[in-house]
Amino acid sequence: MTDIWTPIEVGHLALKNRLVMAPMTRSRAAPDGTPGPLAAAYYAQRAGLGLLVSEGTQPSDAGQGYIFTPGIYTDRHVAGWRAVTSAVHEAGSRLFIQLMHVGRVSHPDNTPGHALGVAPSAVAPNDQMFTLEGMKPIPEPRALTTDEIARTVEDFRHAARRAIEAGADGVEIHGANGYLVQQFFAPNANLRTDRYGGGIENRARFAVEVARAIAEEIGGERTGIRLSPGATLGSLDEGPEAPDLYRHLVGELDKLGLAYIHVMHLGNEALLADIRRLWSRALIVNRPGRAVQGVGSDIAAGRADLESYGQLVLSTPDFPARLKSGAAMNPADKATFYGGGAEGYTDYPVLSGEAA
């Protein structure tokens, strides 16, 4: 019987188990976007999982929205990430770097050159953003021109190449959580009347173009994508056509030979079943808030090939060992999720050798 401990091939990788570390923003990079000095230890501590997906990492200056998030487009970024990938590989796991362009979820106080955020259309998200001066309303973004959309696709391509140069095993496109790729899906954020707006094929086009460019550059077997059907983060409303948009999108992505789709699942079981049916390669399912007692249930039921976990892995570096032993997980300290140093980052306790 297939369970979380059954090895699996995903893309070009043989993974030792079916547990995945979900991407989680930690805001501990240097101001220039270079991963911080503790990043290698943080990821290596969690190498008991078969696959680690990094925190959201901007593919360009324009992709940054939060303070102290990492990038993967300069030589310094590559050098910083190389230390991380080397540590993860030495510890026995694999790492995909998640490419995150935040789009309109941005504030000029946080961006290089104090640039305004960019988006499918000039529609503000009616939300606030943390800055070094505290919380501030997110301003109305600037709408991307068609030429800028093409350049943004190339930014993703370039960042994917740099990630491989840094030793990453692949990249995950962040198409979820209210950021740029998902903004194109949502009619209340995408008011365009050109080939990137209107019907579901047009609204899915940008995601497909990004995925195609990256697959061309580094290989589909090194490319994954994260989706969150129905998510309303960043004030998005995907509308009643959303399930049909995702069915179309998954069908188009399937033609590209990507390694996996990573679904943040919010409860539409019928759509998840359709994604499973339409997708011919690995499917990772993340159910936010899933209890430890439910670990492995989607794999056992055939709804997923792998399962990803966020806060449980953040707080419990030896998550797989504790699953096997039945030991309790560490509580997560939400006050240290973002920014800071080792506290709440690399200092969570692990089981003693005897207990493990």
From TrEMBL:
Coiled-coil region(s): none
Residue span, NADH:flavin oxidoreductase/NADH oxidase N-terminal domain: 4-328
Gene3D superfamilies per record: Aldolase class I (3.20.20.70)
A Pfam family matched in the record: Oxidored_FMN
Protein name: N-ethylmaleimide reductase
Species of origin: Methylobacterium isbiliense
Gene name in the database record: nemA_1
